[in-house]
Specification:
Blueprint (H helix, E strand, L loop, with lengths): L8 E3 L4 E5 L5 H8 L4 E4 L4 E5 L2 H9 L4 H11 L6 H13 L3 E5 L4 E6 L2 H9 L7 E5 L2 E5 L3 H9 L6 E2 L28 H12 L3 E5 L6 H12 L3 E5 L2 H14 L7 E4 L9 E5 H4 L13 H4 L5 E4 L7 H7 L6 E6 L9 H8 L2 E4 L2 H6 L6 E8 L3 H9 L3 H9 L4 H11 L4 E5 L3 H11 L3 E2 L5 H13 L4 E4 L12 E6 L7 H9 L9 E8 L3 H9 L1 H5 L4 E5 L3
Parallel strand pairs: 5-9, 10-15, 10-16, 11-13, 11-14, 12-13, 14-15, 17-22, 17-23, 18-20, 18-21, 19-20, 21-22
Antiparallel strand pairs: 1-2, 2-4, 3-4, 5-6, 6-8, 7-8
Helix pairs in contact: 6-13, 7-8, 15-16
């Protein structure tokens, strides 16, 4: 076995990659393996990655090749790469594209399988028989209505399907992009990477996911796709505030007029050629019938394109509906494909594979998102809190005691004073904690209970510079555009949620002249520390390091 001590990585037979953070080639190695390997742990000295089927298939669908993956492993490994890792990597890359779904006649689709062994496996798998209505050698005949269900079932068997059936066209709808924004009359055009994302989506045939950092212009990418497809479009967003921001962006950067954009939310229910809805509205259940009467907005209308904003938070009922609308073009937008419920495979099979991804640090270097400094501040607990935390019987109870550590208030006050004059967001999970801190700071607090009109009034005041400090709950995690925010102080969160960590950092990444500051407050000697390590994994993969500071009271 050969040994290259200067190299930064050890490739292990269980498909994990150990990467030395202090090695001079750390950044090069991280960037080389990030497209096809997922970061699992990111302690100070060694980062641990894992290669799995889904990470490889997403890489393959985005144009990353086996040759590049093998080169990355061999070039940066201290030891010879285990042969089983190389062979499994080769198999994972090769299987993508072996199962192809094609258009057939009026009633059927064709599933062609370029592998006799896999064809036999599919032919004898009991869970698939209800979708198969005939077979001729390695071609299987599938009823059209089972297009989504088949792909969903096959991904559970580690068999990705390349869907080449195509999509139903809707009526033509011109959606011209403006050359100058409507509000500020500034020159407007897609940035090169945004156009690359549009082109990658179009080249893939009209379904898939675009992954870009918060603040990098995912909405603009969607407008580029809408312009190219030029058909009625449904846009589904996480909340009403996000729906209103979409409307404002469409009016600002396209030639669409107000009367052509409908809103399907709790406040208004319009269905127009361009309609913006919320996940909450689509998944609303009637108490008497337990049915979801608004889901037909997505399934029954003739949309040429459906845009799923923040696709990583797609609710389970929407997944089920998406399986019924596989003949519609589907665009998913997200800053991270990470889902805490493990349903990344569902996104892959039902929305589509990743079509474009650009590292956050690369966007930062080009000036498209702000530089950000991340800090983890460890705060001592009072004796009473520490005792209550240590005897708590349930993990949720002990975590909440640590998260609501009353000493955090002193740290928040000190940080707000330090950054006085900047746009500051104090973000947390627990309403009573937020209300108490807001009272101490003399700042408004925004929660999901606040009426949307009042919420948007406060957001507007923050954007205008009339408000420089907001205390916000998790309602502000997604799709809220506050370009002047440059400081985020996270006092509590949803356990070890990587996607929440990424979204909260994203609140302060709009381009600005100076670096943004992201503070995470965790209680010393508590469960919060363990969860904080997990929360930081995605950002560590993007190249963000955390400065750890112990706070002395």
């Amino acid at each position: 076995m050969h040994y290259y001590p200067q190299r930064p990585m050890i490739v292990q037979g269980d498909h994990t990659l150990l990467l030395e953070t202090h090695n001079p080639d750390f950044n090069k190695a991280r960037d080389a393996i990030a497209p096809f390997a997922e970061l699992e742990k990111s302690p100070e000295h060694i980062h641990s990655y894992r290669i799995d089927h889904l990470s490889v298939w997403n890489a393959a669908s985005a144009g990353f090749t086996l040759k590049k993956a093998e080169k990355a492993l061999i070039e940066f490994s201290k030891y010879d790469v285990p042969s089983n890792v190389l062979s499994e990597l080769q198999r994972a890359f090769s299987i993508y594209g072996k199962l192809v779904l094609l258009a057939g006649d009026d009633e059927r689709l064709y599933l062609d399988i370029d592998d006799a062994f896999i064809a036999e496996q599919v032919g004898h798998e009991k869970s698939l028989q209800k979708f198969i209505i005939g077979r001729l050698d390695k071609r299987f005949y599938i009823a059209k209505e089972h297009r989504g269900n088949l792909k969903y079932a096959l991904i559970k068997l580690n068999l990705p399907v390349e869907d080449k059936v195509g999509f139903q066209d809707a009526t033509h709808l011109s959606i011209p992009l403006r050359q100058q924004t409507r509000t500020s009359q500034q020159d407007f055009a897609l940035r090169p990477y945004q156009q690359q994302a549009v082109d990658a989506f179009s080249a893939a045939g009209g379904h898939g996911v675009i992954v870009l950092a918060c603040g990098a212009g995912k909405t603009v990418v969607a407008m580029g796709v809408m312009h190219d497809i030029a058909m009625p479009t449904l846009i589904v967003t996480p909340n009403t505030a996000a729906a209103h921001q979409w409307r404002a962006e469409l009016l600002d950067k396209t030639e669409l007029q107000e009367e052509g954009i409908g809103e399907y939310t709790g406040a208004r229910k319009e269905i127009l050629p361009i309609t913006i809805a919320t996940y909450q509205m689509l998944t609303y259940r009637d108490r008497n019938t337990d049915e979801m009467p608004h889901m037909e907005v997505m399934t029954q209308h003739e949309w040429g394109l459906i845009v799923f904003d923040e696709v990583h938070v797609l609710p389970a009922p929407v997944f089920r509906a998406v399986s019924e609308i596989q003949a519609r073009r589907r665009l998913g937008l997200t800053a991270t494909l990470v889902r805490e419920d493990g349903k990344e495979g569902d996104v892959f099979s039902l929305i589509g594979p990743k079509r474009y991804d650009m590292p956050w640090r690369e966007l930062e270097e080009q000036g498209h998102i702000a530089q950000a400094n991340c800090f983890e501040i460890r705060v001592p607990m009072s004796q009473d809190d520490h005792f209550a935390h240590s005897i708590a019987e349930k993990r949720t109870e002990s975590y909440r005691i640590a998260a609501e550590n009353r000493n955090k208030e002193k740290v928040v006050i000190a940080l707000v004073e330090k950054h006085q004059g900047e746009g500051i967001l104090v973000i947390g999970q627990y309403i009573k904690q937020l209300q108490h801190i807001a009272k101490k700071l003399g700042a408004p607090v925004i929660t999901g209970r606040m009426k949307s009109d009042e919420r948007e009034r406060l957001y507007a005041a923050f954007r205008a510079g009339d408000l420089r400090l907001l205390v916000v709950s998790k309602v502000a995690n997604y799709a809220i555009d506050l370009p002047d925010a440059s400081v985020a102080i996270q006092i509590s969160g949803s356990f070890g949620s990587r996607q929440e960590e990424a979204q909260r950092l994203g609140r302060i990444l709009r381009p600005k002249k100076h670096a943004a500051s992201f503070y995470t407050l965790v209680s010393q000697d508590s469960d919060e520390l363990r969860f904080a390590i997990n929360r930081q994994r995605f950002l560590a993969e993007q190249g963000y390091g955390y400065v750890i500071e112990d706070w002395e009271l």
